[in-house]
Design a protein that fits this description.
Elements lengths: L2 E4 L9 E7 L6 E2 L4 E6 L4 E5 L4 E6 L6 E3 L3 E6 L6 H18 L27 E2 L6 H4 L10 H10 L17 H5 L16 E2 L4 H16 L2 E9 L1 H10 L9 H15 L5 E3 L4 E3 L5 E3 L1 E3 L2 E3 L2 E2 L7 H16 L5 H4 L4 E5 L18 E15 L2 E15 L5 H16 L11
Helix pairs in contact: 7-8, 7-10
């Protein structure tokens, strides 16, 4: 008997999924445990295995398309079995509540079998369309009309106000690259012949969730911010010495995670969550580490960070960071944070504020280490300073509590001997 395979809910915040790749075609035999498809959630691309045996009779969506959780992903049954009545009945059941709640919402999940009809892509999954000025078109566009430029070249061109269609590309096939923008001297082009242009791309599952969750955090949690400068001279020396004996290279971010975990142990009320009618004070310390990826931001978690050595933290941050960039994180890798650190220092950022990562009460924004003049013993000497900003939810954390946490953090980083005994390496 034919059975419907639903779009699974693969994360706590997932509302819809995108099939990034099918591993079975219509007519293929499928066994329990066979890899059926790869599904892109709001946080990762995950492999989805079949829980039943049968022949793949129907695929509900094409690769690259999105469909809501519980919509028809596929139908398995006996070869040649009629599944259309089952599909119609199931889709009618989905449509009724949707029509009652939001007449404009589209929950259409029906798609023709791959072997029968070429499905029309949904609007949200269409490839980016670029409108371009006609100038120098043969130099900056491919045969399919798409703009040929590297992402970095596009960003530089936007910053400089340069129309890419007027730039001659020196890359493969006339592709515009960074050096073309840097060397651009302007063209002898009449502005009257130019057109405005834009690029539109569908919003990824990850970006949708980032917008939803951070919007909820920013507009529901009353944020306040505390900034402090930390002298990093001793920390720099300590890191250099540690890396001569440690089995894995220690980064400044690893040291900040270790110091933050120690400061949270000293200030347990920071390690908390606002739950509406109560505040949860966590006895365990799980630090979320914000990682920038192509589609947005992921926050893998360093569990029991206060109990781990620097080498353990360094190994874990490298492993989780790599998984995040490759979209191979599993739910256990990103769930359960009690405090979050966002570090943009490696990008040359000196100072910024971060939006609290729910359900945490606080998030620490870490800037880069900058050499500046400082006063020591009445003399102006060069010093290495790092600026950090703590964002706090005022419902669960007051200003004095936040300040005490930063004082503890500053003490550990300015006196790493308190933090970095041999047992901690």
């Amino acid at each position: 008997m034919a059975e419907i395979v639903k779009m699974p809910k693969l994360s706590d915040t997932m509302t819809e999924g995108v099939v990034s790749k099918w591993h079975k075609n219509v007519g293929d035999t499928v066994k329990n445990g066979d890899l059926l498809a790869e599904i892109e959630t709001d946080k990762a691309t995950m492999e989805f295995e079949s829980f039943q045996d049968g022949v793949l009779l129907y695929r509900g969506i094409e690769e690259g398309q999105a469909t809501p959780v519980d919509a028809v992903l596929a139908i398995l049954g006996k070869a040649g079995e009629d599944y259309k009545a089952l599909l119609d009945e199931y889709n009618k059941g989905l449509a009724k509540p949707a029509e009652a709640e939001a007449p404009k919402a589209e929950l259409k999940t029906e798609a023709a079998p791959v072997a029968e009809v070429k499905a029309e892509p949904k609007a949200e999954s269409k490839p980016a369309e670029v409108k371009k000025a006609p100038l120098s078109k043969e130099e900056t566009t491919s045969t399919d009309g798409r703009l040929k430029a590297s992402p970095l070249a596009k960003a530089l061109a936007e910053d400089k106000g340069i129309n890419l269609n007027t730039v001659k590309g020196s890359g493969d096939g006339g592709r515009v690259v960074k050096r073309d923008i840097e060397n651009y001297q302007g063209g002898h082009v009449s502005l009257a012949n130019m057109e405005e242009s834009y690029t539109e791309v569908p919003v990824s599952q990850m970006r949708k969730t980032i917008a939803k969750r951070l919007g909820e955090s920013k507009f529901s949690a009353p944020h306040f911010y505390i900034t402090m400068d930390i002298e990093m001279d001793r920390c720099i020396d300590a890191r250099e010495a540690i890396n001569k004996i440690a089995g894995v290279k220690i980064s400044f971010n690893d040291i900040v995670i270790k110091a933050a975990a120690a400061a949270l142990r000293d200030n347990p009320k920071i390690n908390s969550s606002w739950l509406g009618d109560r505040i949860r004070y966590n006895n365990h310390i799980h630090i979320g580490m914000a990682v920038a990826v192509e589609d947005g931001l992921l926050v893998p978690v360093i569990r029991f960070a206060d109990a781990k050595t620097l080498s353990q933290i360094a190994t874990e941050t490298k492993d989780l960071g790599g998984k995040a960039k490759e979209k191979k994180l599993q739910p256990a890798d990103w769930e359960g944070n009690t405090f979050t650190i966002s570090n943009l220092g490696m990008f040359g950022v000196e100072e910024f504020t971060a939006i609290i990562n729910s359900p945490d009460s606080c998030i620490l924004a870490v800037g880069g280490i900058k050499q500046v003049p400082v006063v020591k013993n009445g003399q102006i000497v060069p010093g290495n300073m790092m600026r950090v900003t703590l964002s706090c939810d005022h419902r669960s954390v007051d200003g004095a509590l936040g300040a005490k946490f930063l004082v503890s953090l500053k003490n550990y980083l300015e006196n790493p001997v308190l933090l970095l005994g041999m047992a901690s390496i």
